[in-house]
């Protein structure tokens, strides 16, 4: 999907994008994306420079000229912006909204930070640490409690074992 009016003099407004640097075997890369839609891509550092310049409300031509001057690279910024539009990263072009993917609904929308803030307090962290320490102490004191592969073999009937373990795996792995 391409907005027909994306050209050199266009100014774009980006959605709220998250950026994170990553080291890879072939060099540095950045992960860029929208949390609301779950769309993320890996881009080279020059693309992050382009995103920052576009975020400063420079036109596509001004962005191209600045990248060419600062990095010495001739990047096709119009084509890059077309890709951003297709990914749903662009909110508007020249003041006109760009249709995109709707934001994903939160799984537990009713849950607010205040409901679970207590989970990140020091007493709870101390209790978790104490529980782990107690579990390690019990396993050292009673090593027969350490699970082994035999614990997965809860019956001698192979068909029941396969169906039961598959059901447990399905319930554990199942997602939306």
Question: Which structural class do you get from the secondary structure elements?
Answer: alpha+beta
Which stretches are low in confidence, meaning pLDDT under 50 for 5 or more residues running?
A: none
Overall 3D shape: elongated
End-to-end Cα distance, whole Å, is: 27 Å
Determine the strand fraction and express it as a percent band.
15-25%
Strand order of the largest sheet: 1-5-6
Helical content class: 40-55%
Radius of gyration: 26 Å
Helix/strand order: EEEEHHHEEHHH
Could you tell me the mean pLDDT? Answer: 88
The largest sheet is:
3 strands, antiparallel
List how many beta strands DSSP finds.
6
List the total number of helices: 6
Provide structural commentary:
The protein has 176 residues and is α+β, with helices and mostly antiparallel strands. The protein has a domain of 86 residues. 42% of the residues lie in helices and 16% in strands. The protein contains 6 helices and 6 strands, in the order E-E-E-E-H-H-H-E-E-H-H-H. A 3-stranded antiparallel β-sheet has the order 1-5-6. Strands 2-3-4 form a 3-stranded antiparallel β-sheet. The protein is elongated and about 70 Å long. The two termini are 27 Å apart. The mean pLDDT is 88.
């Amino acid at each position: 999907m391409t907005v027909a009016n994306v050209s050199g003099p266009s100014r774009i407004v980006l959605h709220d994008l998250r950026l994170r640097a990553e080291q890879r075997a072939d060099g540095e890369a950045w992960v860029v994306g929208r949390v609301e839609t779950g769309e993320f891509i890996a881009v080279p550092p020059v693309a992050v420079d382009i995103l920052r310049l576009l975020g400063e409300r420079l036109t596509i031509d001004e962005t191209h000229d600045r990248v060419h001057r600062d990095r010495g690279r001739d990047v096709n910024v119009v084509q890059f912006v077309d890709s951003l539009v297709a990914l749903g990263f662009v909110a508007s072009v020249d003041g006109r909204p760009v249709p995109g993917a709707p934001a994903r609904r939160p799984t537990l929308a009713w849950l607010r930070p205040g409901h679970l803030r207590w989970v990140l307090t020091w007493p709870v962290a101390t209790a978790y640490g104490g529980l782990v320490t107690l579990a390690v102490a019990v396993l050292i004191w009673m090593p027969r409690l350490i699970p082994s592969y035999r614990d997965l073999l809860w019956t001698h009937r192979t068909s029941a074992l396969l169906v039961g373990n598959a059901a447990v795996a399905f319930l554990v792995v199942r997602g939306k």
